[in-house]
Specification:
The complex is a heterodimer.
Chain A (H helix, E strand, L loop, with lengths): L2 H12 L5 H13 L1 H19 L7 H16 L4
Helix pairs in contact in A: 1-3, 2-3
Chain B lengths: L2 H10 L15 H9 L3 H23 L2 H17 L10 H20 L28 H4 L2 H14 L2 H12 L4 H8 L3 H25 L4
Helix pairs in contact in B: 2-3, 3-4, 3-5, 3-8, 4-5, 7-10, 8-9, 8-10, 9-10
Classes of the chains: A mainly alpha, B mainly alpha.
């Protein structure tokens, strides 16, 4: 296992989507490689940060137009 | 914190954010059944429940307000029209996400026909390996206000290649499975994994720039 291979597997590794043998190989490498350990830690942190901060407001006028369109649709289901 | 300890902490903590595709209110099947039977108020309640999430999804994929609104509206219209075909062995929300993601992708492809690929990605292995890695020190969540992190991440996602962004949004923000994402985007499971890897590494790289440029508060 080398750094390039760990990098290719980092995404699968943080998702728990690697088999037992691969997981063991990666973790043996991480024990000795600070560079890859930081990539793993920072990649996982990145996913958490980006997911948590993706709040999108639904503007009131957009919501009103949606409900108006739905009422028209429900009132005329064939359209 | 020692690196080994950081790794253990990072990997042992479950992801703290909400899980929209796994949190089901108990009355959802009742509402869906009522809506299928023609109860308009029940369908409107389902819309009320998911409209913000669906708008977030369509905004995140299209990055265009007008397209996002149109995609959301058409997704709910289609959901209503095809409700009788919805199989209740899956979640209503997941079904809705599929419809909305397809609506959003259709608009994205129309707007940027040369930027969004339906094919297997041709992605080299170059530029993936960060040359120089530095410890971020205190976690970004400790260093930045939530509003600032939102600005940083919004800008970074905006710059991401649409192919990568779509997979990242479906897998990491909507928490769909790799297989579901592959089916929606129309690519193979390995291609989803490959795009997700690249999206995550590119976003890490963008975040890294902020972490280096800014000194701790």
């Amino acid at each position: 296992m080398n750094c390039d291979r760990v990098l290719l597997e980092v995404s699968n590794y943080i998702d728990g989507d690697v088999d037992v043998a691969m997981k063991r190989e990666i973790e043996l490498h991480l024990l000795e490689c600070q560079h890859c350990t930081m990539i793993v830690v920072q990649t996982k942190l990145t996913v958490e940060i980006f997911c948590d901060s993706q709040a999108v407001e639904l503007p009131q006028e957009v919501r009103s137009r949606l409900h108006e369109a739905l009422r028209r649709k429900i009132g005329n289901p064939g359209t | 914190m020692a690196l080994g300890a950081s790794l253990n902490t990072a990997l042992s903590t479950s992801r703290p954010h909400r899980l929209p595709s796994t949190v089901v209110r108990e009355d959802e099947p009742v509402l869906v059944a009522a809506a299928k039977a023609g109860d308009a108020a029940a369908f409107e309640e389902l819309v009320n429940r998911y409209e913000r999430k669906i708008f977030r999804l369509t905004m995140n994929i299209t990055r265009n307000h007008e397209d996002a609104e149109d995609a959301m509206q058409d997704a709910f219209m289609k959901a209503y029209s095809h409700l009788s075909g919805f199989q209740e062995d899956s979640r209503f929300y997941t079904w809705l996400v599929r419809i909305a993601a397809n609506e959003a992708l259709m608009r994205l492809r129309k707007r940027r026909p040369n930027q969004v690929s339906l094919d297997e990605p041709v992605e080299g292995e170059d530029d993936l390996m960060p040359r120089e890695i530095k410890d971020w020190g205190p976690s970004p969540e400790q260093r930045y206000a939530q509003s600032e992190l939102h600005g940083i991440s919004d800008h970074a996602i905006d710059q991401l290649d649409p192919d990568f962004r779509t997979v990242f949004v479906l897998r990491d923000i909507e928490e769909l499975s790799t297989e579901e994402t592959a089916a929606i985007v129309g690519i193979s499971v390995p291609a989803v994994k490959s795009r997700l890897l690249r999206a995550r590494l590119k976003l890490r790289q963008k975040l890294d720039r902020y972490m280096r440029d800014r000194k701790p508060n």
